[in-house]
Design brief:
alpha/beta; 15 helices; about 375 residues
C-alpha cells in the first residue's frame, strides 16, 4: 500500500500542476447536470385542446376549468360538430378534444354515470400516450366529486383509483437526474484516468516507472486513488446541485449512498486505466474512452430506453454495463429509501465489475513491463 500511495502522491502533484484539468474534473460535471437537467424534460405542457360542450352548464364549465387549471392544457377552441374537430386535428391546431355529453349536469344530479369522450391526435405516439395520461388523471380526479366514466375511441374504460408512489407528481426530472449522474460521472471518470498512463508513455517517464520497485497492482491503485477522491467530491457536488435545483430527495442512508458511488467510481476509473494501458496516444485513449463510457451508459443502462423492451441479445449485453446496476441502486436509495437488504445484488455486481477491470488493467501493465 505504501508503494501505491507513493504513486498517488506523484499523481496528485501532476494533477495540481494542471489546474485547468482539475477544474474540469470538479466543476464541468455540475455544469453538465445543469444543462442536461433543464434541457431534458419529458413533461409536456401547454397542450392545445378543444372542447365540444354539448351541455353548457356550470358542471361542464367546471370540468373544462379542471383541464385549464391543471397547467398542462391550453384551451384553443370550442367546437360544434365533427367537421370542426376534423379541421382542428388535420391542421394540428389541437392535439386533444374533450367531448362533454348533453345532460351532464342532469345525470350528475341524478347520480348516474356520465361518459366523457377524449379524442387524441396520435401522429406522435409518445406524446399522445402522455397527453392521454394527463387527461385520464384530471377526469379521474374530477370523478371524486362526480361519477364520470372516461371514454376513448375504443370504448369505455375500467374505473381506476390511481396512486403513484415515490414520485406522486410524475416529474420526469426525478427519473432523469439519477441517470444523468450515472452518465456524467462515468464519462468524466473514464476520461480522467484513460489519459494518465498514456501521458507517462508520451512523456517518456514510463521507463522510469518500470525501473522503480513497483508491481503493476500498486501502480494501478496509486493511479486510481487521487482520481477517486476528486471524482467522489464531484459526484457529491452533482447530487447537492440536483437536490437544490431539481428537488431530488434523499430518502435513504448517506453511508449506503457513499458505498454505492464508491463502487461505481472504482469501476469507472478502472475502465479508464484499462483503456490507458492499451492505448499508445492520448488521442486514441480519449476516443476509446468516449465510446466505452458514452454509448453503453446512455443506451444500454435503462437511463433512456427500458431494458425489458430491448432484443434478447442487447439485454444480455446490458449485464456487463455497470450503469445498469448503479441506476437501480441510486434510484432505490434516493427515491425509495431502500437499504442493503434490497440493493445488495446491485452492489455485488458493481464490486465484481470493479475488481475485474482493475485486475485486467494490472495484468495488462504487468505484461508490458516484462
Amino acid at each position: 500500500m505504501r508503494k501505491a500511495l507513493s504513486v498517488g502522491r506523484k499523481e496528485v502533484r501532476q494533477i495540481l500542476r494542471d489546474r485547468r484539468s482539475l477544474m474540469v474534473l470538479l466543476f464541468v460535471p455540475a455544469f453538465f447536470l445543469l444543462v442536461y437537467g433543464y434541457a431534458l424534460n419529458w413533461d409536456i405542457r401547454h397542450v392545445h385542446f378543444a372542447v365540444e360542450d354539448r351541455d353548457r352548464t356550470a358542471a361542464s364549465r367546471s370540468l373544462i376549468a379542471a383541464f385549464v387549471n391543471s397547467g398542462y392544457f391550453d384551451l384553443v377552441a370550442e367546437v360544434r360538430g365533427d367537421q370542426e374537430i376534423n379541421d382542428l386535428m388535420n391542421h394540428g391546431a389541437a392535439r386533444a378534444v374533450v367531448i362533454i355529453p348533453n345532460g351532464l349536469a342532469r345525470d350528475l344530479a341524478a347520480n348516474r354515470i356520465v361518459p366523457v369522450q377524449v379524442l387524441l391526435d396520435g401522429d406522435n405516439a409518445n406524446t399522445a400516450t402522455t397527453v392521454m395520461g394527463y387527461a385520464l388523471t384530471i377526469l379521474q380526479s374530477e370523478s371524486a366529486k362526480y361519477r364520470l366514466v372516461v371514454q376513448t375511441m375504443s370504448g369505455p374504460t375500467i374505473g381506476v383509483l390511481p396512486r403513484v408512489w415515490y414520485n406522486p407528481q410524475l416529474r420526469s426530472t426525478l427519473f432523469l437526474v439519477p441517470g444523468l449522474i450515472a452518465y456524467i460521472v462515468m464519462i468524466t471518470s473514464v476520461l480522467s484516468t484513460s489519459l494518465s498512463i498514456v501521458r507517462e508513455k508520451e512523456r517518456g517517464t514510463m521507463e522510469q516507472v518500470r525501473m522503480a520497485p513497483l508491481n503493476a497492482l500498486s501502480f494501478v491503485l496509486g493511479k486510481t486513488i487521487p482520481y477517486y477522491l476528486i471524482a467522489l467530491a464531484s459526484a457529491f457536488a452533482i447530487l447537492l446541485v440536483a437536490m437544490v435545483l431539481f428537488g431530488l430527495p434523499m430518502r435513504g442512508s448517506w453511508l449506503v449512498l457513499l458505498g454505492t458511488i464508491s463502487l461505481y467510481l472504482v469501476g469507472a476509473l478502472g475502465l479508464g486505466l484499462l483503456i490507458s494501458s492499451m492505448a499508445e496516444t492520448q488521442q486514441v485513449a480519449f476516443q476509446v474512452g468516449v465510446l466505452a463510457s458514452f454509448l453503453p451508459t446512455l443506451m444500454l443502462s435503462g437511463f433512456i430506453f427500458p431494458i425489458a423492451s430491448m432484443p434478447t441479445f442487447l439485454r444480455g449485453v446490458t449485464y456487463i454495463v455497470p450503469a445498469r446496476y448503479f441506476l437501480i441502486a441510486l434510484r432505490g436509495i434516493v427515491l425509495k429509501g431502500t437499504g442493503l437488504p434490497i440493493i445488495w445484488p446491485q452492489l455485488v455486481s458493481l464490486a465484481i465489475y470493479s475488481t475485474v477491470v482493475l485486475l485486467l488493467a494490472s495484468l495488462r501493465l504487468r505484461r508490458q513491463w516484462r
